[in-house]
Amino acid sequence: PADAELDDFFRREWVRSVFEQAVERLRRECQVERREPHFALFMRYDVEPMDDGTRPTYARLARDVGLPETQVTNFLALARRRFRHHVLEVLVDLTSSDDEYAEAARDLLGVDA
What we know:
mainly alpha, 0% strand
């Protein structure tokens, strides 16, 4: 394979690894804090698409888990905020300088860190 293809492959694997580690940290946090429903909704909506590759609606999630739609919205907002936090923590662990960290945060999350 060409160098560009290898670079793309390694970048995709690096991004996958960062997100995988952040998801695991979020899972553990939610378990410790007894927020398993937050994590389950995050996984169903943001991580695991339905069989046809689409996302369920918030209304469908609410019906499926027996919560008001507003609570589903709030649970997802908290889980996403914590996920972003964990992504940034993983980047701190994996990067070797403040500049590298800031570049990775911008690349992965579109934020200035």
